Amino acid sequence: MIPALALVAGVALGLVFEPVVPLWLQPYLPIAVVAALDAMFGGIRARLDGIFDAKVFVVSFVSNVLVAALIVFLGDKLGVGAQLSTGVVVVLGIRIFGNAAAIRRHLFRA
Amino acid sequence: MSRDVESHPRPEDETRDRPETTSLSEAAGRGATAAPESSSAAAETTHSASAGPAVGVGESGAGSAVWAAPEPAGESWAPSRDESEGESAVGRAEESGVGPAGGVVESGVRSEVGSAVEPGGESGDETGGESAVGPAEQSLPGPATARGAQAEWEDEDEWEDEAEWEGREFGGGGLLPPVAAHHADLRSAALSAPTALGGTAPAGVGSAGSWSAAPGRSDEDGLDRAGEGGGDRVGEGGEGGEGGQGGQGGDRGDRGDSGERVDAGDVGDSGERVDAGEAGERGETDEGGERGGHGGEGDGAVDLRGDVEGGGAGRGAAGGGGDASDGGGADEADGAEAGESGAGRRRVLRWSRSPAAILVGVLIGLLGFGLAVQVRSNTSTSGLPAARQEDLVRILDDLSSREDRLRRQIAELEAARARLSSAGDTSSTALQEARTRSEALGILAGTVAARGPGVVLTITDPDHRLAAEDLLDTVEELRAAGAEAIQVGGVRIGLDSSFTAADTGIAVDGVAVTVPYTILAIGDPPTLATAMGIPGGVADTAKRAGGEARTEERQQVVIHALRPVKSPHYSRPTN
Question: Which ipTM value was assigned to this complex?
Answer without folding.
Answer: 0.79
